[in-house]
Amino acid sequence: MPVEWQPVQQSRTHELVLRSIEERVVAGELRAGDRLPPERELAPVLGVSRSALREALRVLETVGVLVAQPGRGPDAGARIVRNPDDALGRLLRLHFALGSYSLHDVLEARVVLERSSFEGAACHAPIEDLDEAAELVAGMAEPGIGVSAFNDLDTRFHVLIARSSGNALTSTLTSAVRESVRPLILRALEAVEDWPATARALNAEHRTLLTLVREGSGPEAADLVEWHIRGLHGTLVDGPDGPDGPDGPDGPR
Amino acid sequence: MPVEWQPVQQSRTHELVLRSIEERVVAGELRAGDRLPPERELAPVLGVSRSALREALRVLETVGVLVAQPGRGPDAGARIVRNPDDALGRLLRLHFALGSYSLHDVLEARVVLERSSFEGAACHAPIEDLDEAAELVAGMAEPGIGVSAFNDLDTRFHVLIARSSGNALTSTLTSAVRESVRPLILRALEAVEDWPATARALNAEHRTLLTLVREGSGPEAADLVEWHIRGLHGTLVDGPDGPDGPDGPDGPR
DNA sequence: CCGGAACATGTGGTCGGACCACAGAGCCGA
DNA sequence: TCGGCTCTGTGGTCCGACCACATGTTCCGG
Hints:
Two copies of one chain form a homodimer.
Chain A: H1 13-26, H2 39-46, H3 50-62, E1 66-69, E2 77-80, H4 84-97, H5 103-124, H6 127-140, H7 147-164, H8 168-180, H9 182-191, H10 195-214, H11 218-238
Antiparallel strand pairs in A: 1-2
Helix pairs in contact in A: 1-3, 2-3, 4-8, 5-7, 5-8, 5-10, 5-11, 6-7, 6-10, 7-8, 7-9, 9-11, 10-11
The structure holds a DNA duplex.
């Protein structure tokens, strides 16, 4: 069976530098917390100019593998870190804006990921996280809350549950996906006719979700969050009421 | 409720440039296919040096939003594109190497994503994709196939199913996650005691999976692929036989 | 002896200019 | 008309210099 043609090896210098550093990371020679030599030393060692090295470092910085800060002392210089969240968020946000992913795709991805998040949270969420989530839910229930503030708290609620599920990867993915649709949800909420009623309904769902997680009812929480997300995204596509009407497929809750 | 402190606004020039371009993308002013002005023109317009602009462009390139090629003509210059897969793959690969995500996290993420992929594929996979998948399965069944070649075909099989599920987002995520564990799976397969027998077992699962997808049995395919993935990852952590023994939890298939 | 202020050092960040390699555009002659 | 040549514009690279900043380090006065 013939293998597809591969694009020919790019010979841009900064890509070679990047590959060199990446190999060290993958091989485990560079680990989180390690410091790279100063740019002015590393560049001649690699046989490239400082500019080319800097472009490679910039790439590593954008994928959340490197941070650099000027100055002097133990905290200065370029350090290997593990911060994938910002990078993933930027990536999905831009590509969603470019139309790489349809709203339907994002909806299904959210459903799949957050079902897993809530099931995981029901199993091993630390109690402090649930208390913090309760505060967020209470904040969303404050009368007269604005759409923007509600959206912020809602985002933090879903992200917090994802983080407390104990799975760093699905947590990162969940956060990134939720953040990428934040502006869309904001616009949808602003377009809602009866905002106080919508907020009350969403809050009721949030409270039930939290209760289910607290009592360890993973599958029930997963089903509810799926309904919760589908309902909200339904308003994005089809207007204030989803295709199933204002109540869930099993009638009012 | 007080909001957490936000890190103070960085004033690095290339980040300001980046933000400026990102805003245009998010606002829809820059769309896929559009060309950016030449670096030598854009830099003075933005009031920065060419180096700073280039670092911003490099960031956009690494997130798969931009490609640049020298020369002259309609294809030359910097163009907005939509190519998130490479970027996501590099991101997950590096962070997995750095230990941001445990093997268990990746396992659960794969299960969740590929369940969705196979369910989607059972519903709307085009027949050509299934034929191509059948070729891949046949390739994996060739006697005397090497571990490396098997791993390549297996990766392509799972990625192909994800792509044919009709959801670009979960497809991208699935590919990236599968690629990130490719070297680990390769090592695990190399350590297997009776490789021909293992290959036969995996091939039987692949054939059944494909059959289930062809006949539209989404839930059954999802259950089987979950077992398929858990079994393989079990060999990564616990040796050739997973914790449930060589057969599934419901006995031999 | 102590403390604070001034200075030296080293880091990433930025800038401007120069040159290179390459690929299309356009010209020119056969 | 066609083939080759030159021109031009693009990104890619390199160099040298300077800036801003944080930290050591020194030095001087108390």
